[in-house]
Amino acid sequence: ETGVTQTPRHLVMGMTNKKSLKCEQHLGHNAMYWYKQSAKKPLELMFVYSLEERVENNSVPSRFSPECPNSSHLFLHLHTLQPEDSALYLCASKWTGGNYGYTFGSGTRLTVV
Amino acid sequence: KNEVEQSPQNLTAQEGEFITINCSYSVGISALHWLQQHPGGGIVSLFMLSSGKKKHGRLIATINIQEKHSSLHITASHPRDSAVYICAVRPFGNEKLTFGTGTRLTIIP
């Protein structure tokens, strides 16, 4: 366990479904991130939240909707996804007050059918 | 062309061998990260470097800022070291990480 917990670990959803991914950290970090990892591609940054405010939306389609209700929790709401959205979705957190590293979760493996 | 290039893409070695994975990048950076990703998907941060060399157990990471190059070494490799090793850089003035595509390491008993 890294201290960043993601649920569920695996998710299969149809293109008309609505589901949510959850990320939780109790490390005292003040920034949280969503990354997408597709096969044979580098990790792609999707969203950044710093002090519960979204500071970055990296041109992500609106079918992905993030929510950060507090500094410990981050959600990614999914609706009307496409098969090409199938990927590993990773959450990470860090403390931005100095030169600190990132802590990653184990990821949610999403399959859109 | 990706800003972060790793080599080799795939590496298979016998248990006990000395392993080197390389990372080259094209921008000025404030830090470089080495990450380990096991088959389950979770990522573990191994090192964060801004200069010189760091060692943790059998793992050694070095960086040459002038040459924009870093290496990750594993001594006395073991099958449990089998994973994807990812290099990521943080460009100056930017909190975002830019990732390499990873090196898939397989250690055969």
Task: Describe this structure as you would to a colleague.
- The complex is a heterodimer of chains A (113) and B (109).
- With 113 residues, chain A is an all-beta fold.
- Chain A has strands spanning 4-7, 10-13, 18-25, 31-37, 44-50, 53-57, 64-70, 73-79, 87-94, 103-104, 108-112.
- With 109 residues, chain B is an all-beta fold.
- In chain B, the strands form two sheets. In chain B, strands 2, 4, 5, 9, 10 and 11 form a six-stranded mixed β-sheet that branches.
Summarize the structure.
Chain A has 113 residues and is mainly beta. Chain A is built from no helices and eleven strands.
Bin the strand percentage of chain B.
Answer: over 45%
Order of helices and strands of chain A: EEEEEEEEEEE
Helix content of chain A: under 10%
Please bin the fraction of helical residues of chain B: under 10%
Terminal residue distance of chain B: 36 Å
Biggest sheet statistics of chain B = 6 strands, mixed
| Count of DSSP H/I helices of chain A | 0
Enumerate how many helices of chain B there are, as a single number. Answer: 0
Major sheet of chain A: size, sense and barrel closure?
7 strands, mixed
Could you spell the SSE succession of chain B in H and E letters? Answer: EEEEEEEEEEE
Shape of chain A: globular
Number of strands of chain B: 11
**Largest interface chains and counts:** A-B, 24 and 24 residues
What percent of residues of chain A are in strands? Answer: over 45%
Which spans of chain B have pLDDT < 50 for at least 5 consecutive residues?
none
